[in-house]
Amino acid sequence: MIKINENYLKLQAGYLFPEIGRRVSEFAENNPDADIIKLGIGDVTEPLCPAVIKAMHDAVDEMATSEGFHGYGPEQGYEFLTEAILANDFAPRGVKLDKSEIFISDGSKCDTGNIQEIFGLDNIVAVTDPVYPVYVDTNVMAGRTSNATEGGRYGGIVYMPCTAENNFVPELPSESVDMIYLCYPNNPTGATATKDQLKKWVDYARENKALILFDAAYEAFISDPNIPHSIYEIDGAEEVAIEFRSFSKTAGFTGTRCAFTVVPKALKAYTKAGEAIDVNAIWNRRHSTKFNGCSYITQKGAAAVYTPEGKEQIRNTINLYMDNASRIRKALTELGYNVYGGQNAPYVWLQAPEGMKSWEFFDAVLNKAHVVGTPGAGFGAAGEGYFRLSAFNKPEIVDEAMKRFAKI
Amino acid sequence: MIKINENYLKLQAGYLFPEIGRRVSEFAENNPDADIIKLGIGDVTEPLCPAVIKAMHDAVDEMATSEGFHGYGPEQGYEFLTEAILANDFAPRGVKLDKSEIFISDGSKCDTGNIQEIFGLDNIVAVTDPVYPVYVDTNVMAGRTSNATEGGRYGGIVYMPCTAENNFVPELPSESVDMIYLCYPNNPTGATATKDQLKKWVDYARENKALILFDAAYEAFISDPNIPHSIYEIDGAEEVAIEFRSFSKTAGFTGTRCAFTVVPKALKAYTKAGEAIDVNAIWNRRHSTKFNGCSYITQKGAAAVYTPEGKEQIRNTINLYMDNASRIRKALTELGYNVYGGQNAPYVWLQAPEGMKSWEFFDAVLNKAHVVGTPGAGFGAAGEGYFRLSAFNKPEIVDEAMKRFAKI
Q1: Which residues pair with A104 in a beta bridge?
Q2: Torsion region of B33: left, alpha or beta (phi above 0 gives left; psi -120 to 50 gives alpha)
Q3: CA dist B152 to A99, A293, B97, B385, Å?
Q4: With contacts defined as CB-CB under 8 Å, which chain A residues touch B68?
Q5: Distance (Å) from the C-alpha of residue B266 to the closest C-alpha of chain A?
Q6: CA gap B233, A26 in Å, rounded
Q7: B296 contacts A295? CB cut-off 8 A
Q8: Which fold has domain B53-306?
Q9: Are A187 and A214 a contacting pair, CB within 8 Å?
Q10: What does the pLDDT read at residue A14?
């Protein structure tokens, strides 16, 4: 008899975005004339930049000829892309990596979801709260947790609250943890971590032989020169951290699909008997057995992001989004909201009016301003009372949304 | 302390294709003038067809405009593709499926590797021998096996030998099994299964509440009208089978990456307490949590495979490969080899000369004919003494390879 993986039955039914979708659909049905503005899900709106478009057309043309056709590529990605990554994303920041430490993939959701597979089920997982749900859900599916409690938290996971009180960077945990998910610039809070703050975590991981899973999908939105873009800017991080990067937000690849994971060769994990195992080799085995490489055409597009034209073009788009974020911050601050993030990240995180819960505020914003945001409570218990607005939209639409906020 | 998933340490070091690569590199170094012909790895050689190229150019152009830009798509795939699949791959064969039963992905290697995650670790896995290594390796990684024995087999997996004696379609197992991997047309043997043969398996699965994981990646190469293309052509299979399809070999997408998995709503798996669980819903949860959709541009290309021009163009390419297979069969038969497959599949499976082992024959073919094939033993113990040749190459290169075979 075929048995199901019963860990899946522990998952909470109401995944955040489907519930938002349901409420928005219901509202739209009852208010067919309402012009709903979506600042909820973190999806980009600007087209792919001309350098990427040209590179992809060229790659499609190559695929039309016998000489230029590309079949199976290296599962780890083409060197033209890994080398561009090393030369542009890491070398200028003094981070020395080898191309064998870069694994190109079709997305950071996949990478951050899959990475836990290569580690033992007996590791204690620590996540921030609020948190990107994929980190938690994939550990539930694997069996590292017990059932969820009434508050939606799972037994066996250490939740580290991030609120205005700690500037949305968690304290070191008092209990022992093994796998620590950190995301900076943060989704959903828009917070960043300084070098000193990250150093504390790297030191903790080195002392405790813990692993940091560092999601840097939003690093391109950092404008403050003092904020690190990579965890490897911290000495010794290559011994304890895996880093996730993505072209999704950086270059508008949410529908085009390309990302990469850095697994340094200095990183070790351990057998129960204490033997040190090379994590890079194990991830390579996983990646080449359960993945078959990212599309050649897509990788050619991603490589064009690193050309001089590509860099300038994506910078213009990022600036457009960050101008949106800045105007959102200004408008909401003037309206008296407590506003966080939005300075080095495309997300603005605000506090709902005193005494109002996240979903109540969501409903109020939808009903009175016809604007869709994301309730902070959907990202975790410590997000209760907060609300996320995304800066991914056309400037005129963002401005219209802010005008309507005045009516709430 | 971060613990590794120790199941990975059970994996055999020598994955087949890297070992082939090593021997070929060594030979090439020692024989720099040798013109090596590769009929080893099953990668296509013909370019993408014009209909696909045009659709992908159009999709790239869409992505360059605000109006045509596509960000995150449905994780399950766009309806324009799922509907084309239903209308062309299934409806004409009398197979009724709903679009919610189709999951578009970036490849069948991923799908056949990932599918086991949603089932319990206590299921007994059955595979054919020889077998596509991904089925086995992903179950080893998950922890469904013990260490490998000297012969390379893993404890806890039921191996079902497929040899000339049973026409490469296995007998029903005498022990109880829960997850049965079948691949027809078969990689590596090129064998097909008739409706009667598949019906035996479907009946077995229904009687025993077992699950069939049916890999149909090569169905487009079937020319015999009596051979089923889908397991759902067998009555009741929708209650016990998941099917995997791919554009890789059908339409030359090995470097472009698109495939799909069929998970019928009638399919159930069970909790230890015996409760029936809807497998479609669980796979949907896994797919939308650990995957973020296949590239829009790629899906547009895949949909073009189903246009009248696309169908004709891919048919011409498939015919070219199958003409190759036919000439390989003829040449080897004339040379006195026992030859199998190659009639409804792009692989020819031959017996090495009496008393010769697979790797010995591999070395002989490489050294004497400068041709690379795949040693049957690399696919499993029952493949010992066999050898696989792929029909994916230019006709003139295939003919040259056959000329050289005469010298062995």
Answers
A1: A260
A2: alpha
A3: 32, 27, 39, 16
A4: 47
A5: 14
A6: 40
A7: no
A8: Aspartate Aminotransferase; domain 2 (3.40.640)
A9: no
A10: 61
Average pLDDT of A162-190? Answer: 95
Pairing of strands A374-375, A386-390: antiparallel
Q: How many CA atoms lie within 13 A of A349 on its CB side?
A: 28
Cβ of A5 within 8 Å of Cβ of B118? The answer is: yes
Q: What is the CA radius of gyration of chain B?
A: 21
- For the stretch B307-357, pLDDT in tens is 999 999 999 999 999 999 999 999 999 999 999 999 999 999 999 999 999
Give the whole-angstrom CA distance, residue A187 versus residue A165.
18
- Helical spans, DSSP H, in A177-221: 195-208
- Tell me the CATH class for A10-47+314-405: alpha beta
Residue A277: closest C-alpha in chain B? B4
| A88, A306 contact by CB (below 8 A) | yes
**Domains of chain A, residue spans:** 10-47+314-405, 53-308
One of 1.10.260.40, 3.40.50.300, 3.40.50.2300, 3.90.1150.10 is the CATH number of B13-42+311-405, namely 3.90.1150.10
Structure tokens at A250: 């950086």
Q: Which amino acid is at B39?
A: L
Q: A26: exposed, middle or buried (C-beta count within 10 Å: 0-12, 13-18, 19+)?
A: exposed
CATH code for the part of the protein at A53-308: 3.40.640.10
CA angle B386, B392, B396 (to 5 degrees): 105
Burial class (CB within 10 angstroms; exposed 0-12, middle 13-18, buried 19+) of A308: exposed
* Residue A286 near residue A269 (C-beta atoms within 8 A): no
User: Does pLDDT of B14 surpass 70?
Assistant: no
* Tokens encoding B35: 């013109």
Tell me the C-alpha distance between A208 and B280, whole Å: 41
- Let me know if the fold of B13-42+311-405 is the same as that of B53-306: no
Query: How much is the pLDDT for B150?
Result: 80
Give dist(CA A220, CA A314) in Å, integer. Answer: 9
As beta bridge partners, residue B104 has: B260
The mean predicted confidence, pLDDT, of chain A is 96
Contact flag A210-B2 (C-beta cutoff 8 Å): yes
Cβ atoms of A297 and A60 within 8 Å: the answer is: yes
